[in-house]
Amino acid sequence: MKTKKGIGVSPGVAISPVVVIDTEEFDIPERHVPVDRARSELERLKQALKRSQLEIKDLQRRTIERIGQETAKIFDFHIGLLSDKILLDKLSDLIIGGNVTAEYAVATVLRGYAKDFLSMPEYLAERVKDVYDIEKRLLRNLTGQRRQSLSHLERDVIVLAHDLTPSQTASMDRKHVLGLAIDAGGQTSHTAIVAKALGIPAVVGLNDLTGEVSGGDIVIIDGSHGLVVINPDDETIERYRKFAQQQIEFVHSLDSLRDLPAITSDGHEIKLMGNIEFPEEASSVLEKGGDGIGLYRTEFLYLGADEEPNEQKHFEAYRSVIEQCGNLPVAIRTLDLGADKYTQSRARTPERNPFLGCRSIRFCLQNLPMFKTQLRAILRATVGSQASLMFPLITNMLELKQAKAIVRDVAEDLEEEGIEYRNDVPIGMMVETPAACLQCDAFAKEVDYFSVGTNDLVQYTLAVDRSNEKVASLFTPAHPAVLKLMREILRCGQRHNVPVSVCGEMAGDPTYTLLLLGLGLRSFSATPPAIPEIKKIIRSVTMEQAVRVARRAMDFDFDKEVIYYLRMETRKILPEAFAD
Ligand code: PEP
Ligand code: MG
């Protein structure tokens, strides 16, 4: 039995055999084989090497015919490596000496090669892509076409992967994926956000767990404490079963809050809404007692889709959410593609710093036909509703003015075409950068509301990539600089009478509920499973208490002090909060 610590991003417990998935969704089966099977593994490997060489030679021949001799030379490296005696020796030593499967040997040895290439001068480091290519080809030839489609599983599993894209996570078979353990990622990576929204216990930032676990091993995912237990003993399994039961009971104990308002014990009404990625999630927001949708991440329409959604597809998705929500508000965020979502995997030349690159509103302003398609659908779908639209990642005034001008253009087009649309849809903007926050007085005159995206605000304020596990411990909304920006935007909203909502993960973390209330926040939007607990805290506190806590929290210099203090104060009001 071995326990690994990562970052718990979606609470709950799962106990199950694992399926280990590589980046291409190949299932890497168990590591060890009985001594007498090692020879047949070596034989399988030799067959796979031969098949891979034949494939590459065929590819090279076709390239010569179509493009020419020179270009076809790019395959020489592949052929050379696949027939390299040193590679074969390394692989057979591992298979025979270590009694491991051929797949495991290939993954281990070629990852080692990739690492070596990466440390070489730039022109050689480029070779790393070829090494990955060769690895994939060999694995494909070893496993046949045994790709694990995470969307069609036949048994209950915990998925263990080096990394998963948000779309892979979103398309997972929710019935059979009981838990997720991922080497990469941080607290607010989009993969983590999707896992949380789906209620799948998940731990990310485990670094090298995929190297330590074999397909079929039993593991426990403890998403509440960020732990993964590999091959647990009976006593540990029993302990976790009890813990899981307590958690289920705790969740049910909050069911009675569903139809009660989010109102402080001294009568201040708070709007408590939910974040969604897919139209189907709207029902879980309502089931959890949410007051509407404070963030609809519409870019998920693109993720996992084989082709770009057309206007009708957009329209149907928005209409579905609006109809499910009746008279409740729905904030439809325009496409936030880019960074870890969609564009990089399709780009011929991926950006060097995609989170600082052409993402979000910047991407939309450079892809006007796509943006206009979405805006047409939004203006049509919002007729007669309480829905609004909001722009993500607005950083300068020109972007906001341009985006609003495009909305006007689209409205004119619809008018001319005689198509029914809403011509006074409220327009909000997300505050996700220090720049937007510091220029909020000017922006306040241009928008109907602000919605603070704390995931990006923390990332850009603290210079910490939200999806990089190596710096995950530095990512925290409790940093005094972030708190000052939050206070500033809330004060700005009051100065200009512009409503402010918070829809980043901070709004769904019970640690920060008192602080946000005390700073003046009256509108939260959280991941649906978090709604009841946040409501419980709101209903347990007076505004005076919250203001006092917020004032004191602003005095600390260290984020850890802030967190410790906030949790202690929350426990005074609600002793069961943060229970282990
Ligand atoms: C945020 O950045 O806080 C936010 C809500 O947007 P997303 O997580 O989709 O980037
Ligand atoms: Mg964001």
- Tally of separate helices: 24
The kinds of small molecule bound in this structure are: phosphoenolpyruvate, magnesium ion
The helix content is: 40-55%
Number of strands: 16
Give the strand order of the largest sheet, numbering strands 1, 2, ... along the chain.
1-8-7-3-4-5-6-2
Helix vs. strand class: alpha/beta
Q: How far is it from the N-terminal to the C-terminal residue, by CA?
A: 22 Å
Q: List the uncertain runs.
A: none
Write the layout of secondary structure elements.
Blueprint: E1 2-5, E2 7-10, E3 13-21, H1 38-66, H2 69-72, H3 76-82, H4 85-98, H5 102-118, H6 122-125, H7 128-143, E4 157-161, H8 166-170, E5 177-182, H9 190-198, E6 202-204, E7 218-222, E8 227-230, H10 234-253, E9 271-276, H11 282-287, E10 293-297, H12 311-325, E11 330-333, H13 343-346, H14 361-366, H15 368-381, E12 387-391, H16 397-417, E13 427-431, H17 434-438, H18 440-444, E14 449-452, H19 454-462, H20 480-496, E15 500-502, H21 513-519, E16 523-526, H22 531-540, H23 543-553, H24 559-573
Parallel strand pairs: 3-4, 4-5, 5-6, 9-10, 9-16, 10-11, 11-12, 12-13, 13-14, 14-15
Antiparallel strand pairs: 1-8, 2-6, 3-7, 7-8
Helix pairs in contact: 1-3, 1-4, 1-7, 4-5, 5-7, 12-15, 15-16, 21-23
The structure holds phosphoenolpyruvate and magnesium ion.
Phosphoenolpyruvate binds near residues 336, 432, 454 and 504.
